[in-house]
Amino acid sequence: MVLNYISRTHSTTTAIVLSVLPLLYIVVKKVLHRLSAPIRQLPGPKSVNWLTGSLERHVWEPDSQDFQLEWTQKYGPVFRYYGMFNVSIPYVTDSNKLDHSIFADGHYRYYRSPSVELYP
Hints:
Blueprint: H1 10-35, H2 65-75, E1 78-82, E2 88-92, H3 95-102
Antiparallel strand pairs: 1-2
């Protein structure tokens, strides 16, 4: 005897389709966004592992900054690397380039008051 947990009716099928379509739309939108993101154009180290990305096991040691300094010397002040689960992460060490990447069109800038002094 075969048990049927979900009865096959027109309304059940419609409910399942209507609940799966928004989920499918969100997944496709996220995948297309990642595939068309301008961060993919940046140079950077390749992924070593799908779990750790570009970071190897020895990154968790105390001298792990040396690894990022090597990347900065090799790829320049702006590059991308892969973080946990192969998520692309931008790495910017030049503040002028960071300002340009955030405010590319010149709008929405934060203007500080004249009383604010920056450290040289």
